[in-house]
Amino acid sequence: MKHPFLDTVRDASMRLDRTIVRYNDQPIYIHRVNEHFRLEAHYLKTGDRVPEDALQEPAAFDFSPVLLGYANGVRCDATYVTRIPRRRWKQGLNAEAIKGMGGRDMAGPYLYKTIVNDYPTFAKALRRSIDYGYATAFHRHYAVFNSGTLVSYKRTVVGEVLDGKIVVMPAYTYLLDEIKEIVGEKYC
């Protein structure tokens, strides 16, 4: 059985080609839907191929928008990835609808941990920022940067790190409860 809103191969191709959606709770990149209603897709985490007949299992797909935010690079700074506010006919996340990728390939593993909300602890992010100088996210919306001396919230500097603890600037004290919940009292 095909997915209910994917009536034709043309419709499925228009909506899904070159997009990221979730299949069995895992982010996948769909290269294309071929003329036999088969997927040419791979898992973001492993690069393994998705079964070609996956569209026959409509319940296995989650086409709701994937959550974005900071994406940690392997040997580079974290970048804040957001959607561009424009209407698209695509069902999944596609490269034309996001910014902040910094030239990275959307089909690779770069976005995987962001989509599944897998971030290092604040202590690990701070250590990486100090040791290597990389901006490192410890949450979808928060990162440490400038060699572990500053904290940002969605690309805005909201505090600094003093003696291993986050000190929020007066204008951003409304974020303090959220930060404490994320990092724990010991780091605030």
Q: Would you kindly provide a written description of the structure presented here, covering whatever features stand out?
A:
With 188 residues, the protein is of the alpha+beta class. It has two domains: 1-118, no CATH class; 122-187, no CATH class. Helices cover 16% and strands 27% of the residues. It has four helices and 14 strands. It has helices at 9-16, 112-115, 122-132, 176-183, and strands at 19-23, 26-33, 39-43, 61-62, 70-71, 79-80, 82-83, 93-94, 98-99, 136-137, 142-145, 150-153, 156-162, 165-168. The strands form four sheets. Strands 1, 2, 3, 4 and 8 form a five-stranded antiparallel sheet that branches. β11 and β12 form a beta hairpin. The longest helix has 11 residues, at 122-132. It is elongated. The model has no long low-confidence stretch (mean pLDDT 89).
